[in-house]
Amino acid sequence: MMPSLYLPSDSLARAVGADEVAVALITQARERNLPRGLYWLEPLLEVDSPQGRIGFGPLTAADVPSVLEALQGDPSAHPLAFGLVEELPYLKTQQRLLFARAGITRPLSLDDYRAHGGFEGLTRAVAVGGEQTATEVFDSGLRGRGGAAFPAGIKWRTVRATEAAQKYIVCNADEGDSGTFADRMLMEGDPFLLIEGMAIAGITVGATYGYIYVRSEYPDAVATLRQALNLARAAGYLGANVGGSGQAFDMEVRVGAGAYICGEETALLDSLEGKRGVVRAKPPIPALKGLFGLPTLVHNVLTLASVPLILAKGAQFYRDYGMGRSLGTMPFQLAGNIRHGGLVERAFGLTLRELVEDYGGGTASGRPLKAAQVGGPLGAWVPPSQFDTPLDYEAFAGIGAMLGHGGVVVADDSLDMAQMARFALQFCAEESCGKCTPCRIGSTRGVEVIDRLLAAPDQSGRDEQVIILKDLCDTMQYGSLCALGGMAPFPVASALKYFPADFGLQASEADQ
Q1: 467 and 352 share one domain
Q2: In this structure, are residues 123 and 113 in contact, taking their beta carbons and an 8 Å threshold?
Q3: Which tens digits make up the pLDDT trace of 359-369?
């Protein structure tokens, strides 16, 4: 009897040929009169065996006939077989809380989701009531995974305590940082987890409606979420009586407007209201006056998706992962010039070196590591001398860096850091909403200063431009209205400090 076969429908897998492999599998299965399997997660094929799932990959459509032949005998003899998927060191040492189901369950199967613990968190939230639920979130130490790392429980208590005729839950799924893809993977691979988290949030703080604001470049995630919402609504997990709670909560998906600035929570709210995405001055904070001027709980995908587990297992279970004030797990995303790119979910506290070298396997080019940019296109460049820093919010702040959304982009020694510093300021200039002067004007002037620095014919000319550039970075960092202008100096300052030679400087010049 032919074992079950599993192939992903994840958009990354489809981008590298999963659709062609699926067609070949169906065609070959029909020709051989074999049953057809399920499609999910990544561009690799998994096959049931008495020991567990055996992996084959990376596959192309041309490999399908030989794989099906191998399944008639000893699958491990096939050159693309790599043994049990769960025994791969890359996966075996992870601590998957958020992504425990991804790749195991069918994304749009409520039965699969419930069979693997789904909706246990919502059931408990209904049983214990809103006050206890908000306390669990607060006691868990959960912090926002969107970059700012603000304690989630404080937001929940603030929105819950604010009196209003209408409140909202908004999920920021505008995952625009370079090298990040965890939100997309979760929305495509386990959409009910996000829906459950938002439903818990809604009945806890007294909100009756929610929005998932998904970037326009994620059409597969949008389609999957919309199907999942219909299924959840039909099953009573959304609507007039959420999970038997007697409370109403419903939600919808909105497609983003395509601007990077709409990842900032207040610009996102403007976009949801049908306006141009422009950063709002705070106060008032969104928890008091957010969407349509009403109390709004704004979180990103990973934050809301953490809530069901916290309710199902308890705050202490969650606190047992992590270090210091950085509790729980973080799905770190490896990209750039990296041998083994992908998602690694681990508790806070592993080092950047473990992530890049042990999981990532170093550079794909084989050249020496030069740096890793952590936290998106406006994150600091971290040199190998600081790779032993624990992945922890406070530890990274201590070296002038940040974790952000957990994206890590790796570079080898061929990368020109002066050009990357220039790119950060150019990116800021192009993506600025234009509301505040330090960001709008400072980013443009910054590009010009770097150009003059690189073109300076002598020592005195370079020294003068370095002074101007540092002064400009200070103005942007401390004077900008939001993190776009406030963080653009991070990659510039770190490139100057650790890679002065790329600017034609001596170390002493960069440190002056």
Answers
A1: no
A2: no
A3: 999 999 999 99
